[in-house]
Amino acid sequence: MAARSFQFKQFAVAQDRCAMKVGTDGTLLGAWAEVPAGISAPSILDIGTGTGLVAMMMAQRWPQARVMAIDIDPDAASQARQNVAASRFADRIEVAACDLQTFQPAVLFDAIVCNPPFFVDALTCPDTRRTLARHTASLPYEDLMKGAFRLLAHGGKVSVVVPADYEETVIDEGLFAGLMAERVCRVRTKEDKPPKRVLMTFTNVALSRPVIPTELTIDSEAYRQLLADFYL
Fold first, then answer.
1. 131 close to 138: Cβ distance less than 8 angstroms
2. Which pLDDT tens digit goes with each residue over 133-154?
């Protein structure tokens, strides 16, 4: 992967001014996340957009969607704007430099996606921008789930990707906020390795069935099919 840009089938992602580069977590989330059934022109929020990757993936998957992308890092938001402006989705994605905690949009969202900071207990980095992008101090899971609940339309869906060790924590924080897990997919790097990441979708309506987790292995046929519309 080049440090400066990453080419997908329908768009390119410049990343030289972003603390966090294009990676497997974001591409998985963008390909796996859902919007409520029956909504052809959903309103979508991407929290912590970074390069704008997930926002553009969602815009590609739903050609009539309107996407709002926010990031606490002004440089990341600026780069996301650059990437969006160079894409075919420029008229459907708006980017703002702000944090979730103070974000006050005029609308609620049918779907919310987030690849949140993932280091919880590790030492912070001297580089402030990398700390914002990597450490949950800037967006604790509690704040993420409360913010998502506040901004989600009735019957909407919130999709996240987090380290596998924090699956139970995020499910609990969702419940405390009023969000119930309805999809869980545990991601392995190899068949014989324990899961490293978990993809989860939450909703704000009561569910009548228990969640049955699924699994996905990187570079498996199912993985390649999931990303077939994006990777060259």
1. yes
2. 444 456 899 999 999 999 999 9
How far apart CA 168 and CA 211 sit, in angstroms, is 13
Map the chain to HEC letters. CCCCEEECCCCEEECCCCCCCCCHHHHHHHHHCCCCCCCCCCEEEEECCCCCHHHHHHHHHCCCCEEEEEECCHHHHHHHHHHHHCCCCCCCEEEEECCHHHCCCCCCEEEEEECCCCECCCCCCCCHHHHHHHEHHHCCHHHHHHHHHHHEEEEEEEEEEEEHHHHHHHHHHHHHHCCEEEEEEEEECCCCCCCCEEEEEEECCCCCCCCCCEEEECCCHHHHHHCCCCCC
pTM given for the model: 0.91
E strands, the chain, in order? 5-7, 12-14, 43-47, 66-71, 93-97, 109-114, 152-163, 180-188, 197-203, 214-217
Confidence class for position 209, pLDDT limits 50, 70, 90: confident
Residue 9 near residue 232 (C-beta atoms within 8 A): yes
The pLDDT, as a whole number, for residue 5 is 87
Model pLDDT for residues 68-117, shown as the tens digit of each residue: 999 999 999 999 999 999 999 999 999 999 999 999 999 999 999 999 98
- Amino acid letter, residue 45: L
